Amino acid sequence: MPMPHTVTLIPGDGTGPEITTATRRVLEATGIEFEWDVRQAGSEMLEKQGTVLPDDVLESIKRTKVGLKGPITTPVGRGQRSANVTLRKKLDLYANLRPAKTYPGLRSRYENIDLVIVRENTEDLYAGIEFQRGTSHQEELLELIERTTGQKLDPHSALSIKYISVLATRRIVRFAFDYARANDRRKVTIVHKANIMRLSDGLFLATAHEVAKEYPDIQHEDRIVDNMCMQLVQKPEMYDVLVLPNLYGDIISDLSAGLIGGLGVAPGANIGSQYAVFEPVHGSAPKYAGQNKVNPMAMMFSGVMMLRHLGEKEAAVRLEKALMQVIAEGKYVTYDLKPRPDDPTAVGTSQVADAVIERLRRL
Ligand code: NAD
């Protein structure tokens, strides 16, 4: 008997627990043995323990090395930092990998999209270096800015620091090229706004071009982020692997999810040198919590990525095929994959899991 894979399972909050149950069921139906270490994070933990990300969640992932995670709500503009950002930072999950691929049956305006977004996950405007208006640190910083640049900024302002380092840029760009090499990809596109942010994005761009020289077998090019958005909408089939700083990566991956048929089918992985956490691109969709309504496929496709990471290639291929068959048939899919969102034939979250398990049994 092969050893079961021990995985930290974080249901999250909002619709997270429902899609997590559905995903766990299909993963178990592949025949691969799992030992789930279920850990709670999210709004409920904030009430019970005063933090959305209790320490035992991090300790568990440090032990198991692999996590599968549902979305966690981040209250806008409140004191608590995002549990998602904290998790990525504390475990140094520096690469956020977000594939966007069209499957027959998805309601997309395009065919043949097969993009992989590689987003830097630890710095940029997401580093959490912010200064509130009216604080002594904000005042000090405004003084420093005036002294060094001559610009007098409005005291009624808040500041967020865009932080880009050579080290983090090097490792994310290497990750993108290594990924391209290992997965028979032909091209890496470096995305930036170095024409305006000449120092921070300029450093990202220059470092990325330097790293690219180590990979003469893979083509590379660069695009300014606004132009990239237009290019992706006009001719997404021209692009392959994209590597981006944190904020552009976040935005472009939602755009790419839209290109392929929506957030309901967009998976993701956060990968570091020691740990990996798999999660859908979408958030907790709290307005649908407890309604057995939202699409669990984005988390199931994240499960496919996890199976590959665990070396279970055959099971990954079978689960992906089962998902493709359910999508192509178009019958047992949630509202977001129907021609109209109010389609009365849409099924619920758990019925999607039933249909995928049914296909898996026949494969
Ligand atoms: P969201 O992704 O939760 O929802 C955006 C839209 O997409 C909504 O209309 C929603 O109904 C729809 N949607 C999302 N997932 C779906 C699914 N599986 N099936 C069908 N439709 C789906 O984004 P939001 O409303 O901006 O964020 C809600 C909360 O989630 C926020 O607190 C945000 O901070 C958090 N969030 C968490 C993560 C994470 O845990 N990694 C990621 C993004 C957002």
From TrEMBL:
- Where in the numbering of this chain does the Isopropylmalate dehydrogenase-like domain appear? 6-356
| Origin species | Ktedonobacter racemifer DSM 44963
Q: Does the keyword Oxidoreductase apply?
A: yes
Question: Which GO biological process entries does UniProt record here?
Answer: isocitrate metabolic process; tricarboxylic acid cycle
Sorted alphabetically, the keyword list is: Oxidoreductase
Name the Enzyme Commission number(s) assigned to this protein: 1.1.1.41
Note whether Oxidoreductase occurs among the keywords. Answer: yes
* Coiled-coil zones: none
Extract the InterPro entries matched here: IsoCit/isopropylmalate_DH_CS, IsoPropMal-DH-like_dom
- EC top class named in words: oxidoreductase
Protein's UniProt name: Isocitrate dehydrogenase (NAD(+))
* Database matches in Gene3D superfamilies: Isopropylmalate Dehydrogenase (3.40.718.10)
Question: Pfam families, per this entry?
Answer: Iso_dh
Describe the family membership recorded for this protein in Swiss-Prot or TrEMBL: Belongs to the isocitrate and isopropylmalate dehydrogenases family.
Q: Which SMART domains match?
A: Iso_dh
Q: Drop me one GO molecular function for this one.
A: NAD binding
